[in-house]
Amino acid sequence: MRLAENKRLGKKRRKPYRKSGRKNPEIDESVITAESIVDGRAARVIAHHGVAVLVRFESGEEKQVWLQPEQKAVVGDRVQVAGGRLGVEPAHGILRRRDPRGRERTIATNLDYLGVVVAPVPREPPGYIDRGFVIARAAGIEPFLVLNKIDLDEDNVLGDRLAEIYGPSAPLLRVSAQSGENVDLVKALLANDSAEEATTPYEGKLGAFVGPSGVGKSSLLNVLVPDLALRVGELNRGSGKGRHTTTTATLHSLAGGGTLVDTAGFKDFIAVDLDPLDAATHFPGFEGAGEAGCRFRDCLHRTEPDCAILAAVECGDVDERRHRSYVQLIEELETSDGRS
């Protein structure tokens, strides 16, 4: 009789709680901080599996931990674990994007470095590198550029052009995942090696690769982490674009120090919480000219009086083509709230 009444009233019967790997769903634990975990063990999230995460302790031991309802944890998060409960510590260096449906996605946290990977084939969408640099810098992450498949870069045309544009802004590493040429430069950069090409001093840093599908991110990781054996996708013969071979972000330790996050192939960056002023502040190539300072603190470097960037364009210190690329980016941000 009670069951029939519940059905008529649209009520659902509550299933009795049974012991399992999950905590009692009747307890509100949607927000669990590291401070709330007593006698916890420090760990880092190295993979996300929907309702659970895989964490690695400082000892190297790994363990799967169930997330509480509505609890969020992503690759790179530093956590405290005790008794099957997980508390997330405050994070920095948060890499986020919007998916094609406009939903916000956090890709990884606590990043120190973001490697934007490109290749002669397939070429990245227009503005991809610039957008990647701005997103990284706005999040407090240092970008670097990786040109993979250098064996396909005839006469170093693409590499030299990228060096001309981005060399003054960030390290450019020319590598070949297929032959292994110069791949050690990536290790040196993340492990604070003394290699001459790795001029930025980072010691044991957490980095991530992003780039269009097909440029060889998984191939690079296979070389950097030999036991990884990620699936490597071939280019689609019809479109010339890459196929996604990674479906979830995962974290991997490098033998010489440092760690890397492998991310699902990005068709394009769709920025989250970026505005034109972020682009004005962090656009690659404006660093030197911007030191002179503009008259207005919120200058967008378009038509404002006494603009240091416009003055640099006029005298040739900043290439006019780079300024046009910048204007195109901020117009995209203004018209679509960062969505492309």
Could you give the topology of this structure?
Elements: H1 2-8, E1 41-48, E2 52-57, E3 62-66, E4 78-82, E5 85-88, E6 95-98, E7 104-108, E8 113-118, H2 128-138, E9 142-147, H3 157-166, E10 172-174, H4 184-191, E11 206-210, H5 217-224, E12 250-253, E13 259-262, H6 276-282, H7 287-290, H8 308-315, H9 320-336
Parallel strand pairs: 8-9, 8-11, 9-10, 11-13
Antiparallel strand pairs: 1-2, 1-4, 2-3, 4-5, 6-7, 12-13
Helix pairs in contact: 2-6, 6-9
Keywords:
340 residues, alpha/beta, SH3 type barrels, Rossmann fold, Ribonucleotide Reductase Protein R1, domain 1, 3 domains, six-stranded mixed β-sheet, five-stranded antiparallel β-sheet, 9 helices, 13 strands, globular, disordered N terminus
The major sheet is characterized as: 6 strands, mixed
Structural class: alpha/beta
CATH superfamily (homologous) name of the largest domain: P-loop containing nucleotide triphosphate hydrolases
| Nearest-integer average pLDDT | 81
Q: What is the CATH topology assignment of the largest domain?
A: Rossmann fold
Strand content is 15-25%
List segments where confidence is low: pLDDT < 50 over at least 5 consecutive residues: 1-30, 193-203, 231-247
Lateral arrangement of strands in the main beta sheet = 10-9-8-11-13-12
Distance between the termini: 56 Å
Number of distinct beta strands: 13
- Top CATH class of the largest domain: Alpha Beta
Rg over CA atoms: 23 Å
- Shape descriptor reads globular
Helix percentage: 10-25%
